[in-house]
Amino acid sequence: MEGACTKLDEDILDIPLDDPDANAAAAKIQASFRGHMTRKKIKGGEIDRKTKDAECANSTRGGDLRNGD
Asked: What residue spans carry the Basic and acidic residues bias annotation (predicted)?
C-alpha cells in the first residue's frame, strides 16, 4: 500500500499552480519563513559580536590603538 495515494495526498496534488490565491498564500508563507531565518541569523550574530567584544575588552594588550601604541 506504499504506492497508493491517500485522499489527503490527492488533495495536496490537486492545487492548481496558476491560482492567484494559492500563489499569494505561498508568498506569505515564504516571506514569513525568510523573516524568521533573517531574525534568527541577526540574533546569532549579536551573540557572536557580544562574545568577541568581551574577549577584546579582556585582552592583555596595554596599548591604545587610536594613538598608535
From this structure: 43-55
